[in-house]
Amino acid sequence: MSASELVALVTAVKGAVDFAKGLKAVMDKAKLDDELSELFSRLLSVQSFALTLQSEHQTLIEEKGELSKKLMEFENWKKTEADYALTEICPKIFIYVYKKSAESVEPVHWLCPNCWQAKQKSILQGKHDRVYACPRCNFTMANTNEPPPPPLRMRTSYR
After folding, report:
1. Which of 77, 122, 134, 144 could bridge across to 139 with cysteines, CB 3.0–4.6 Å?
2. What CA–CA distance (Å, rounded) separates 125 from 140?
3. Alpha carbon of 39 to those of 16, 18, 48: distances in Å?
4. Packing angle between helix 3-22 and helix 29-82, nearest 10 degrees?
5. CA–CA distance from 58 to each of 3, 22, 45 (Å)?
6. % of residues, the chain, pLDDT over 90
7. pLDDT, tens only, 8-41
8. Residue partners of 20: CB distance under 8 A and separation at least 6
9. What is the DSSP letter of 124?
10. What is the dihedral of CA 100, 101, 106, 110, to 10 degrees?
11. Those residues with Cβ within 8 angstroms of residue 127's Cβ, 6 or more apart along the chain or in another chain
């Protein structure tokens, strides 16, 4: 609620109170009825104005909450951005690579560049021999610089 709106509300209430005080001097019943009708009309106007201000105030509170949420998301994304570097892994193929630090527990991984632009983390998954895909947007790439993974060995005994 702005200062000017608050002043307008106080002025309207003061006008209604002053009007009510003036009713004491009225002795004529018909004139009294007219004056009371005018008083009720003014009070209804004040009440309507107060409800409008209350509604606007509630809208502002909701907008503030939404903006606070967006700011928090933005700040969280800024922290996430600091953990990744845009890297050319082979000619003309760029992805976001996790920058592993001494205290981090996450393994090194790659993020989809398309999902990154939408401020979403989506880890590229190995499909088969040097081909990776994003499970969220289906971005696919072949990494020609990486040697093929070693074959998996099955464990035959459990001890």
Report:
1. 134
2. 9
3. 6, 10, 14
4. 170
5. 16, 36, 20
6. 39
7. 877 887 887 777 777 666 567 777 788 888 888 9
8. 39
9. -
10. -20
11. 133, 140
